[in-house]
Amino acid sequence: MTSPVPLPSHVHYELLLQLLERRTLPAVPQYSQQQQQVQSLIVSLRKALSQQKRLEETCRHEQTPVEYYWSLNEIPPPLRSDI
């Protein structure tokens, strides 16, 4: 059996997006470089979540299990076979 692919829980993306959209964006001046940077960061996070979902779909298609994690404390250190 294939080992599960460890991935961050979707809630991590949602938390960051909500923080940026609800707190950070209103706190920076409108039409400023800071606002553009925050909006760019929001777009990047949405793309990252979308890419992760595509990876999950590929794993499902290939019948590779996916395991969602909430923190690094739950993940054992990776086994390196090239050492």
Outline of the structure:
It is built from 2 helices and 2 strands. By secondary structure, it is mainly α.
Describe this structure in words.
This protein has two helices and two strands; from the N terminus they run E-H-H-E. With 83 residues, the chain is mainly α. The chain has a two-stranded parallel ribbon with strand order 1-2. It is elongated. This is DUF5340 family protein.
By secondary-structure content and strand pairing, the structural class works out as mainly alpha
Level of helix content? 55-70%
Question: Strand count, sense and closure of the main sheet?
Answer: 2 strands, parallel
Total number of helices: 2
What global shape is seen?
elongated
How far is it from the N-terminal to the C-terminal residue, by CA? 23 Å
Q: What value does the average pLDDT take?
A: 91
Write the H/E string, N to C: EHHE
Compute the CA-based radius of gyration: 17 Å
Low-confidence stretches: none
**DSSP strand (E) fraction?**
5-15%
**How are strands sequenced across the largest beta sheet?**
1-2
Q: Compute the number of strand runs.
A: 2
Pfam families: DUF5340 (PF17275)
Protein name: DUF5340 family protein
Organism: Vasconcelosia minhoensis LEGE 07310
Offer a few descriptive terms.
elongated, 83 residues, two-stranded parallel ribbon, 10% strand, 57% helix, mainly alpha
Q: What is the fold's blueprint, element by element?
A:
Blueprint: E1 5-8, H1 10-27, H2 33-61, E2 66-69
Parallel strand pairs: 1-2
Helix pairs in contact: 1-2
Organism: Vasconcelosia minhoensis LEGE 07310
Protein name: DUF5340 family protein
